[in-house]
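Posted in: Structural Biology > Protein-Ligand Complexes

Title: Requesting predicted complex, zinc ion in pocket

I'd be grateful if someone could produce the 3D structure tokens for the following input. Sequence and ligand are given below.
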Amino acid sequence: MNVNSSKKSFMALVLCAALILVLSFSYLYIFSNSNHHCSKHECPVCEQIQIAEHIIEQVKNAIITIAVLCMTVFFICHLLDMTYVLLVKDSLVKRKVRLNN
Ligand SMILES: [Zn+2]
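-- Reply #1 --
Done. Output follows.
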């Protein structure tokens, strides 16, 4: 493992930790302030709860999009692999067998 690869791994780990922290704090804020004394008119707590819900929704959509993309790439790779096996059949020329006469 070279230095560049270890840097990428470290950055990926930091991003995952930040994502988990943001989600945890968003859920914690919503849970802890769900029964607040609301003034009903421009309540700052309600606005913060809406922002936290928006963050959670964005992260959820990003995770779903990434999962769908990964599944699509996985499916296409397997489809190409199966197509290669079906279409490119084994032959003597491919095995480099010398054909005399
Ligand atoms: Zn409120």
